[in-house]
Amino acid sequence: MSTAGVANGQTQVQPETALRMLNAQQQQFEKGVVQVADNVYTAVGFHGANTSMIVGTDGVIIVDTLFGPSSASKAAEAFRRYSDKPVKAIIYTHSHGDHTGGASAFVGDEKPDVFATETFGSAEGVNKAVEPVKAKRNIRQFGRNLSPSESTNRGVAPANTEDGDRGKGFLPPTVTVPSDGLKTTIAGVEIEFHNGPGETGDAMFIWLPKEKVLLAGDNFYSSFPNLYAIRGTAYRDVLSWSESVAKMATFKPDVLIPGHTMPIQGQDAATTALNDYSEAIRSVYDQTVRGINAGKGPDQLAHEVKLPEHLKDKPYLIQFYGSVPHAVRAIYAGLLGWYDGNPTTLNPLQPKLKAKKMAELAGGTQELTEQMESALAKEEFQWALELSDHVKWLDDADVKLARKVKIAALRALAAREYNAPNRNYYLSCANELESGQLSEVWF
């Protein structure tokens, strides 16, 4: 068998290996409540993210509240087995909807304080204008429309979640955490709020000094981090993310509670994970910047930058969710914008004209079409995909055949992906092409 089909990306392996890896990752979000300290409990797998309960003298504190009241109410019910004390405070580690949408499910007659950072709500930033296309890409990234036979998971979350009541339980913040943090006592529990921008600019982490428990929010979970989300996001400040995680490591927690996936217990394990995570992010950033300053473009760097050898096999750095190549491209665009500095790319040919030129090079439309089919037969799936995009522009081409090849190549790439967003996106686009939902302009 040709290895060309599995050599295009860092997260492509043989299909049986990809499936085995993704199935093994399922244990990271197996549904249940994990007790991590005498008075701290984390509910995993009730939705995509985690929610935690800290039990105090006359009440409890809830950190993050899942996506909507239906999922949150199930987590709240599970927590009640450990404490029926009223909720005195709710804390949002950041403003992503899967952490804020279910707050009302935890609240009784008492109205708790709701804590968030000064910049809360800035997670999705300035790109509201492109919400329509982001919504479509979100569905693809998370595989929301995939059939049960196609679904695996979302890398750091289960495939199927209750999403119909998204955000309906959101309670607006009532207490603002200042930029230099906050140390206070709630329900007899000493608690510290530390600003820590990373996945979002409005992120913070929570430290419980007596319990030595650190709640990281989405700046840490068991996967290489999603430094760029293919659903479409504004630039995530990668350097700040690395620094925030390094700051967390200085606390040397006995327990690390991520925003997604299972808690890590034991001071050595938790502290090592944080240091490794920070180093991995920083390494990708530094390698990319060195490459940029050496005059290399994003396409070349996306294939060259790798995780350091001593980190790449750490279970919390396998690229199930985030991807090093995507991170490299995001860092490039975030620091320099779209232009790679090569004068050839200042004003590239229009796609249809480029397709005609490609056909001429191949000896005509029929020859280009044969090259496309040959690439698929040789399992050069990425090349088949790229050639199908040229063929479909040609007026005298078999556009239905180009679509058929593209669908087959997408499914073949998906089968080889252990990066869940990549896998889900490939499969979702294949389905949309097959059903006619996806405009020919986009395939």
TrEMBL record:
Residues 144-154 have a biased composition (Polar residues). InterPro entries: Alkyl/aryl-sulf_dimr_sf, Alkyl_sulf_dimr, Bact_Alkyl/Aryl-Sulfatase, Bds1/SdsA1_MBL-fold, Metallo-B-lactamas, RibonucZ/Hydroxyglut_hydro. It comes from the Bacteria. GO terms for biological process: dodecyl sulfate metabolic process. Residues 142-171 are annotated as: Disordered. One of its GO terms (molecular function) is linear primary-alkylsulfatase activity. It holds the Pfam family Lactamase_B. Transmembrane segments: none annotated. Residues 48-260 form the Metallo-beta-lactamase domain. This is Metallo-beta-lactamase superfamily protein. It comes from Rhodopirellula europaea 6C.
